[in-house]
Amino acid sequence: MKSSADSSLWRHRDFRLYWAGQASDVLGSSPSSVAISLVAVVSLHATTWEAAVLAAVHKTPPLLFSLPAGAWCDRVRKRPLMMATSLISAAAMASIPLAASYDRLTLMQLWVAAFVVGSCHVVGMAASLSYIPHLLPPRRLLEADAKLASANTLADIGGPALAGALIGLIGAARAVAADAVSYLVTAWCTLRIRSPETAPSPRTARPSLRSEIRAGRGVLLGRRAVVGHFVS
Q1: pLDDT grade, residue 2 (50/70/90)?
Q2: Is pLDDT above 80 for 177?
Q3: Among 198, 201, 204, 196, which Cα is nearest to 75's?
Q4: How far is residue 106's CA from residue 125's CA, in Å, rounded to a whole number?
Q5: CB distance 127 to 73 below 8 Å
Q6: Residue 206, C-beta contacts closer than 8 angstroms, at least 6 positions apart
Q7: Buried/exposed 142-172: b ≥16 CB within 10 Å, e otherwise
Q8: CA dihedral defined by 59, 64, 67, 68, rounded to 10 degrees?
Q9: Predicted confidence (pLDDT) per residue in 124-165, tens digit
Q10: Is the pLDDT score of 82 beyond 90?
Q11: DSSP state, 5?
């Protein structure tokens, strides 16, 4: 007979905490992505070019850090890294309404905060995905992926509506503060996970970081070539 932990991942305490933390992260990010732009345009009277720079800064970290983050996360403990990126993101987001309350908010601060949060998202996502095999046995990974996909679907469906309602109710700056709280919830859920994490392999037992990044780039270029062949 299957144990209660094997019957459903919702009965797995640590996975519930992990799922709740990830759901809080993706759901809380929906209002902030809209709210930061509104703060720039409404409060700081940003021009079209300045708003475009803000959007570009937010999208730049995945292009810069995706491959290095994936290779680096395999070399360190994931759970402390997940908590650190959540706390740094919370601090960066909380600084926006705090500065706005003292009339000290600038576009430069918005750009820096967007870049910091985007960078933390890339590293934190790589760490969280690498952490799942430490949390669950291999036979449960497919079910875990399905349940995590449901959190992303929930954010896609309810995120825009939540963003509009929250911004209309409490204002753009305070909606950004709500995202800071969501990062704190993510860090708290991650902290409460009890499952032990296997120590990373010694440096002498693995290829160099540059070699792993080069290998990952080769995989991506290979996939792009295959897709291009079928498209053409």
Answers
A1: very low
A2: yes
A3: 201
A4: 28
A5: yes
A6: 74, 75, 212
A7: eebeebbeebeeebeeebeebbeebbeeebb
A8: -130
A9: 999 998 899 889 988 999 989 888 888 778 777 776 677 777
A10: yes
A11: H
Structure tokens at 112: 């820096």
CA distance 97 to 192: 28
Tracing tokens 């732009």 back to the chain, one arrives at: 37
The model carries a pTM of 0.81
DSSP state of 103: T
- Can you spell out the DSSP letters for 55-96? HHHHHHHHHHHHHHHHHHHTTS-HHHHHHHHHHHHHHHHHHH
Q: How do residues 178-205 score in pLDDT, each as one tens digit?
A: 889 999 999 999 999 998 887 776 655 5
Query: Which one-letter amino acid corresponds to residue 139?
Result: R
